[in-house]
Amino acid sequence: MRIRLTSVHVNSQTEALKFYTEILGFVKMADISANNYRWVTVVSPEDRDGTQLVLEPNENPAAKAYQEALFQQNIPAASFFVDDIQKEYERLKKRGVKFTLEPTELPGTPATIAILDDTCGNLIQITQLQNSEIPTKD
Fold first, then answer.
1. Residue 88 near residue 41, CB atoms below 8 Å
2. Pairing mode, if any, of strands 99-105 and 37-43?
3. What is the Cα Rg of the chain in Å?
4. Are 114 and 125 within 8 A, CB to CB?
């Protein structure tokens, strides 16, 4: 069993696609329209065969309520890993990205995190681990 897709609900797929590709630097993998439905996915340019992020419309009232509750409670909807969080923070700040949390070391962990506003209704956490390895369970 593998994770090939994961979703984040967005207020506007068009604006989300622009933010995730032009600002964050992801690559568009799919943008398929069928009647009133649109399927949009992006992927990391460093792992084009990796997990795709579905930019899911928040048209379902339950999805919209969940998205809004996470945002109001300052809870990230997704977390992305970076090799150099300070460099990424500076790059994104120059592109006008608003951060709700500047790079902050988490006490007792090998992680430094920052949280940004994706302009589409979500907070996104970026994380740098000291050993550059995502923890896995064997």
1. no
2. unpaired
3. 15
4. yes
